[in-house]
Predict the structure.
Amino acid sequence: ASKEMTEAAVLLFYR
Amino acid sequence: KKKLITNFEHLERLSNRSRYVARSCKEIRDRYNEQEDGLYYLTTANGMVYQTFCDMTTAGGGWTLVASVHENSINGRCTVGDRWSSQQGNNLNLPDGDGNWSNRNTFGTAEGATSDDFKNPGYYDIKAEDMSVWHVPNNFPLDHWNLAAILRYHTNNRFLRLYGGNLFQLFKHYPVRYNIGSCSNRGPAVPIVYDHGDRETTRMFYGLKPRKEFEPGFITFRAINNERAAMAICSGVKPIAGCNTEHYCIGGGGYFYPDQCGDFPSFDYDSLGMGQGWS
């Protein structure tokens, strides 16, 4: 995967 | 002097938020008409009070941050910091790994959600209908998350109603466990609405070879690869062929054959960040 992707946290939200 | 007063008033307004009583950001928005993004206190059914980030603006708002998956070391293989797979090594005898997708353990802080893994009681306590996902570059401070995100999207078909109202319940139906099934046993793939980015930018975030295996425009749960390793979420994509999901799905159980274990399992398989091969 791109470096952008691996160096970004994945934030999960609910509604 | 004017600036000092402004700052004080701002802090006073923020501290007033601790008087709200609600179980989700949507309740705060609906009940107290709060429309500003930021940190708020929430209370669980059992009365536990915790603080988290509320996105009050996206698509009408009221989105509660419940978790973040952060990669502290792409070279680590199910080591310290891999809370969303296993911190106990790549181990056939621990098929669930740390089990955090389906337990009530919590960790991290909302403010630190881009610098380390985060999970709060909302993950299992809130009865929700939809999900939103932000990919935010590591270490960005909270007030810049929205602008800094490289990808933001949400679902709008209330799919969580079908799976118990949150990921805790969804992953009871679809355990994130090694050898629980084969590639054809993946969980739901849900269409998404883009808030930043599109199908093409999503496609380009992943390697050349993975792009032939998925369709962008979805969020998918509990994918299983050729080697029977389970992954929790394929963000932005739906696997449709090939079953090499370890290169584009995150989170997982405790064992990946031969050694691709980790929160971002095999995103670094070859030529990390070069846009070639599987990486």
Residues 3-6 of chain A form the longest helix (4 residues). Helices of chain A lie at 3-6.
